[in-house]
Amino acid sequence: MRHSRRNRVTAPATILSRLNTLLCRADTVTTATAVIATYRPRTGRLRWARAGHPPPLLADSHRVTCLPNPRGPLLGVFPAASFTQHSHRLLPGHSVLFYTDGLIKRGALDEGIGLLAERITGGHPAAVLDRLDFAAAGDDACALLAQRIA
Questions:
Q1: Model pTM?
Q2: What CATH architecture is 5-147?
Q3: Distance of CA 54 to the CA centre of its chain
Q4: N or C: fewer beta carbons within 10 Å in the chain?
């Protein structure tokens, strides 16, 4: 069976590698952080790669855990940088949070992630987002929360 090119999804690590190449070849010095993720609703499979971001958090109604944090430096710094990716199957009721480091800047990294994890356990995604402290981060506060419902 032949698959059309249109149905293929470029791997998140490949996208980051291409973005890194573009930034390294630019005439100006520009760096950036990024997370690229793909999700397949039919299977619940989430794949992600990151460049300089903290680990995504996985929450169910009882607990929060850090998902693996694939290797990936800031974009635009190292021309030959390599990026890895991970995948995880989300079960119904699981939520995943991708966020910028502005939401965890107070104290040590592990402490900041722990405080953030306490705020996202249980509840409807809108209620969870209301518990996040965006104001304390200044201009570097961004979060993406997604929940698998079926």
A1: 0.85
A2: 4-Layer Sandwich (3.60)
A3: 8
A4: N
